[in-house]
Design goal:
Length: 110
Amino acid sequence: MAEKPWTLDDAQDAVDQWITQWEEGYWDPLCNLARLTEEVGELAREINQTHGEKPAAGPDKPARIADELGDILFVTITLANSLDIDLEKALRATLHKYGIRDRDRFTPRS
């Protein structure tokens, strides 16, 4: 039986449950930003080695793009939770902003 798809709310709750089981709890936002930057760098390396002009050399692991995207999502949710940000509302606001700002910027599909 397939698992029920998560909403952003479900994902934020799951990350909160994982983080709050530990005494240390949430790290401060600046530390999480550093973690996010690190994870984005790891994604860049994986994409460069898979789709760029710098193939993996020697004993490097095979591409783990999905793993790195999962790490980025986890840290992003952690950062949002620590700042009490509802990611669903934030994403809806961003899509609305893009819909207005970019409505004449690109060529619509026919």
